[in-house]
Amino acid sequence: MSWRLRALDGHRLWLRFSDGSEGVRDFSDIFMKGGPMVEPLKAPDYFTRAFVEMGVPTWPNGFDLDPINLYMELRDAGALTRVATE
């Protein structure tokens, strides 16, 4: 699944998936769970360093997210909108 992302204020990521769907994921729930890999992401300047590596949203410390799970979470929450693919 190829796609793009952009970090937004408030520890949110805007995600656009290869099928033309896009949505915003708030990561507050992940931060509440805590853990050594999550701690650096709490700093807004670090959170904005998110990038896509091999189709996976990743941060410089190696923390990454399953793109299929992200898609399903947003889809199931009704948080995806459909846009024209580029």
Topology diagram in text:
Layout: E1 3-8, E2 12-17, E3 21-26, H1 28-33, H2 44-47, E4 51-53, E5 56-58, H3 67-76, E6 81-82
Antiparallel strand pairs: 1-2, 2-3, 3-6, 4-5
Give an overview of the whole structure.
This protein has 86 residues and is α+β, with helices and mostly antiparallel strands. Helices cover 23% and strands 30% of the residues. The protein has three helices and six strands, in the order βββααββαβ. It has helices spanning 28-33, 44-47, 67-76, and strands at residues 3-8, 12-17, 21-26, 51-53, 56-58, 81-82. The strands form two sheets. The chain has a four-stranded antiparallel β-sheet, with helices on one face. β2 (12-17) and β3 form a beta hairpin. The mean pLDDT is 91.
